[in-house]
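Handout, section B. The chain below has 327 residues.
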Amino acid sequence: MKNVNKKLILTAHAVLILFIMLFAFTATAQEKDAVTPKAVVVNGVVIDQVEIDREFAEVEKQALAKGQKIPDDKMDQIRNSIIDNFINEELLVQDSKSHGIKVEPSEVEAAFADIQKRFNDTAALEKALAESNITVDELKVKIKRGIAAKKLIDDQVVTTIVVPETENRAFYDEHPEYFKHAEQVKASHILIKCDPKAEASVKDEAKRKIKDIQKKLADGESFSELAKQFSECPSKNQSGDLGFFEREKMVKPFADAAFALQTDAISDIVETDFGFHLIKITDKKAASIEEYETVKEKINSHLKRGKTQEAIGKYIVNLREKATIEK
């Protein structure tokens, strides 16, 4: 299964990280200074301009880190998106309170510990926080808000999503291309590298090496041991094993030779842009289509993910329609 192979995983950690990343630099109303310029007010709660500017600066920094610059004609669009994210987060947090949702300190500490694991040490985490102009305490406040929003979404949205069996089956029937698997072979190889533009003398030396190995094979020596000893491909550490692959995954001369072989057969010398190869086929898988029963849970997760995203969007729209938002 291809495009729907990733299951929807609505775990606390996964969704929490989503909220933390989405609202990584938002601040709570209690942290606001009364004289700080306000950008927007959500049901009486101020989101100040300083926070908006800080988030925008972070977006610019991330773009520059990728060698990109935000076009001038996109500045307002991105800033408005940032403001919308702040508004949405604040509405979710407010709504979580109205539903009596509580976040225990132990939950915050557990989530913070998960974030710490992403860094080599405490100094690396502190450096990252400093670069983002945020303290550990501020991060924990944001984590708490993220957990509250996640709990709200779980309770009010996720638990309501159901995908009928008929929809799962219809998706399977309407998208057979997602469940087809092309023929595959499992191969090992021995490679002697040679640049295709190399001088004749260099090519001759590479050919001599691969022919010597070919002779050793003919004399009964082990393919895997010869791969370990002589191959110039990193796969030598796995005795030359390349695992299973489809025809399109390899360069044409290699694929043509590999797929023409029977199991346990060894090819003649094959030349590609990488050099000279000897290929051994160790297993084959015929082209196939996955049965519905084996993929229906993956289909269900895929469809549920789409329905959940749509429902979350509608839930936030509803909160915004009922809210008093001053820009």
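Note. The chain is about 55% helix and 15% strand. Compare this with the example in section A.
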